[in-house]
């Protein structure tokens, strides 16, 4: 697609045209459009949304929660975007997407846009793509944007890097799992949710999260813990209200502003790194790397080879 085409698509996406929003995303995903081109068209107009990471163990009810939140948020006349990162890999097969994204409360609503994306690329690549998608949703005028990822481990870090708020969702049975989590992961959370609280022991889990939080060094800032159930609707209204009030007070929220500056910095670094790397790995250097054989891995230290490779067209 030509760049004139891209501009037309972006103009329509700005007006919340469903197909054009999808086209922008797919265009970036399939490298039909360059990130740079798209960013130049949309970036300045993609700052009004609140981006929320919803992360937690598989099956904790992350999608079900969003499905419950959407109609309540919509009643406040706010629009919603959802990016669900699908953890299924070609190796394990994974579950079918339609099964996983239980977001059917949004059918036929122009002000809700749900998009799934695979996580087959390396972790960094997925996060970057999710960030681009979330910018596109922001550009299309979505007020609140959820990014769902399955954690436990690395993905909490990456989703917290691209969002304004990180929500960690657990279930009553997560007690042991939480004890094993590194403190750093829990410290990423701005909000905790104990979902499936229709099951027993949810109070116990709330207590242990509280204990862990008070024993970590995190400042005295109060981290909210919501007890929710998608079955009985307990706590859903409170959780939703917290989200909308974060949205409404975003401009005065220093934590969110700081995160946005950090995010911008990180993006700059990542773009520079990519640029420099792609300049470095020219054809000649790549050929040298590809030419490594069984003999050279034993006779040449990696540093020696790096010097040799660098010698080709010194940067
Ligand atoms: N009892 C009970 N079941 C729930 C609740 N919330 C979700 N479920 C069920 O838990 C299962 C998983 O829900 P999902 O919303 O798909 O969970 P998820 O965290 O998005 O799952 P993945 O995206 O696959 O990691 C479904 O069968 C839901 O119906 C709840 O509050 N109580
Ligand atoms: Mg899900």
Summarize the structure in words.
The protein is an alpha/beta fold and 315 residues long. It has a domain at 46-253: P-loop containing nucleotide triphosphate hydrolases (Rossmann fold), CATH 3.40.50. Helix content is 52%, strand content 13%. The protein is built from 15 helices and seven strands. Strands 3-2-4-1-5-6-7 form a seven-stranded parallel β-sheet, sandwiched between helices. Helix 1 crosses helix 3 (35-42), helix 4 crosses helix 11 and helix 6 packs parallel to helix 7 (154-162). The chain is globular, with a radius of gyration of 22 Å. The structure holds guanosine-5'-triphosphate and magnesium ion. Magnesium ion is lined by residues 62-63, 84, 100, 148.
Strand content bin: 5-15%
* Cα gyration radius (Å): 22 Å
Global mean pLDDT: 87
Helix content bin: 40-55%
**Highest CATH level, the class of the domain at 46-253:** Alpha Beta
Bound small molecules, by name, code or SMILES, are: guanosine-5'-triphosphate, magnesium ion
Order of helices and strands: HHHEHEHEHEHEHHEHEHHHHH
Number of helices: 15
- Give the beta-strand count: 7
Give the strand order of the largest sheet, numbering strands 1, 2, ... along the chain: 3-2-4-1-5-6-7
Query: What is the CA–CA distance across the termini?
Result: 34 Å
Given helix and strand content, the structural type is alpha/beta
Main beta sheet: 7 strands, parallel
Low-confidence sequence ranges: 89-100
Assign the CATH architecture of the domain at 46-253: 3-Layer(aba) Sandwich
CATH third-tier fold name of the domain at 46-253: Rossmann fold
Shape type: globular
CATH superfamily of the domain at 46-253: P-loop containing nucleotide triphosphate hydrolases
């Amino acid at each position: 697609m030509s760049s004139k085409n891209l501009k037309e698509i972006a103009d329509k996406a700005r007006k919340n045209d469903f197909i054009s929003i999808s086209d922008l995303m797919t265009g970036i995903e399939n490298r039909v459009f360059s990130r740079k081109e798209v960013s130049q068209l949309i970036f300045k107009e993609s700052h009004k949304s609140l981006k929320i990471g919803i992360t937690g163990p598989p099956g904790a009810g992350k999608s079900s929660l969003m499905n419950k939140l959407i109609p309540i948020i919509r009643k406040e006349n706010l629009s919603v975007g959802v990016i669900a990162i699908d953890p299924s890999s070609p190796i394990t097969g994974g579950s079918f997407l339609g099964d996983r994204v239980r977001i059917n409360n949004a059918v036929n609503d122009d002000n809700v846009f749900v998009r799934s994306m695979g996580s087959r690329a390396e972790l960094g690549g997925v996060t970057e793509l999710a960030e681009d998608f979330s910018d596109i949703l922001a550009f299309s005028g979505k007020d609140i944007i959820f990014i769902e990822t399955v954690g436990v481990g690395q993905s909490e870090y990456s989703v917290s890097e691209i969002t304004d708020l990180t929500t960690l969702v657990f279930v009553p049975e997560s007690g042991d799992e939480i004890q094993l989590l590194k403190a750093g992961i829990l410290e990423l959370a701005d909000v905790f949710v104990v979902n499936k609280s229709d099951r027993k022991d949810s109070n116990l889990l709330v207590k242990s999260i509280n204990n862990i939080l008070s024993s970590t060094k995190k400042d005295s800032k109060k981290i909210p813990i919501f007890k929710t159930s998608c079955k009985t609707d307990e706590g859903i209204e409170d959780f939703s209200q917290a989200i909308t009030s974060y949205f409404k007070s975003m401009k005065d929220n220093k934590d969110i502003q700081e995160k946005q500056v950090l995010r911008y910095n990180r993006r700059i670094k990542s773009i520079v790194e990519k640029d420099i790397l792609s300049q470095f790995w020219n054809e000649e250097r790549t050929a040298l790397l590809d030419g490594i054989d069984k003999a050279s891995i034993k006779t040449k230290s990696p540093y020696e080879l790096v010097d040799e490779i660098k010698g080709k067209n010194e940067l």
